[in-house]
Amino acid sequence: MEASDSAMLKLACHCGSNTHAFSVTLPLDKKYKDIHFCQCTTCRWATGTFAATAIQAPSPPFDPDGNPPATLTVWKSSDIGSRYFCSTCSAQLFFRYSLPELTKDANRGFYLATGVVELPPGETFGVDCVAYIDSVPDGGLASWLSDVKLRGLLRDTLAVDDIVAREREARNLEVPQKLEGTCYCSSVKITLSRPTGRPEELPPYTFSDNTDLVIPNYTPADEQPAVDEKNPWWIREEQKPAAGKRFLGGLCACTSCRKIAGSEVQGWIFVPTVCVELTLPSGETVPWPSRQELVEDPTYNSIIGTYKSTPGDPGVLRGFCKTCGANIFWDGLTRRNLVDLSTGLFSQRGVREEGWIEWWTERVSFVEDAEKRHDIGKRLERGLQEWKTRLGGRV
Ligand SMILES: [Zn+2]
Ligand SMILES: [Zn+2]
Ligand SMILES: [Zn+2]
Ligand SMILES: [Zn+2]
């Protein structure tokens, strides 16, 4: 292959409303394939994930001085940056710095959300670094992906020992009485209360099949265990005596989550809807709405956009903040009164809230989906196991 061979970097959101192709030369420069993980508060709250994953754009996807394509919603997330997400499926697509020193570059200050990017054939993603670990006092995703460059902010280097020390400190934080969640623009505010063994938290009132996180989807049907009616997989043991039962949380690397979050990994918490309250912009607090209300009632659908990510009825319904684009929920198929909520929303204190959430360490959900793109899912699985060992087996 000649050094001057040209190829395309293709970008497409989940619903296909937004597609772009960027001309690049091979071999592909690292800045177009080594992923920058950002754990800053804006990235966490504006995506709903643990970290946004980005690469530099080879060229601007559109003229930043003109109007962006009508298929995009723009969210000016700070004085110096804007985010662009698909108005239909909510996929995060672009981030742009408006700083003069960056906008004069050939790419006009644009970065691409890697989750929606396909590299030229034969190329795979690597990791540049995990940045803004200072925004997450317990290390966040970096605790599980520590074999890469670790940055406190953008340039200063951290060692694995620094992360371990932070984890220890964060473990001593007082556990909040209620778990509060928010998207970056604050249009969507969610409050969780503890599961206490009420019938509404258990089958048959609340039900879901096994989750791929715990029992891989490829497990033959006759080898899938039945969901335990008294101790279903979504209710977990307390972390400290008398702290209360917890929810299950985990990472997903499935193609749909990736192409909707724009991030290589999405985090979910599995919660019975009876434990969820929504605070509307008016200040009124209401129980978590039904699927039908979320789709049809203007009280909710003026704030939370919905998207059917799997064809079929009832299908999978996902929800996002219409203003800032944050992933909010996943609700699917055989579900009854159980919803997956985006973990990034619940990182107000910047920590994984282990007093409320048991993080699953045995698997990254649908890790097989990402195998041809990168080995990040497998590295996270190793990192989760090492983290569990570090904690003496009690996560
Ligand atoms: Zn889309
Ligand atoms: Zn960030
Ligand atoms: Zn928002
Ligand atoms: Zn997924």
Automatic annotation (TrEMBL):
Keyword Zinc tagged: yes
Molecular function terms, GO-annotated: carbon-sulfur lyase activity; metal ion binding
Keywords per UniProt: Lyase, Metal-binding, Zinc
Domain CENP-V/GFA: 9-145
Keyword Metal-binding: yes
Pfam families, A to Z: GFA (PF04828)
Similarity section: Belongs to the Gfa family.
Name this polypeptide is given: CENP-V/GFA domain-containing protein
Organism: Drechslerella dactyloides
Taxonomic placement: Eukaryota, Fungi, Dikarya, Ascomycota, Pezizomycotina
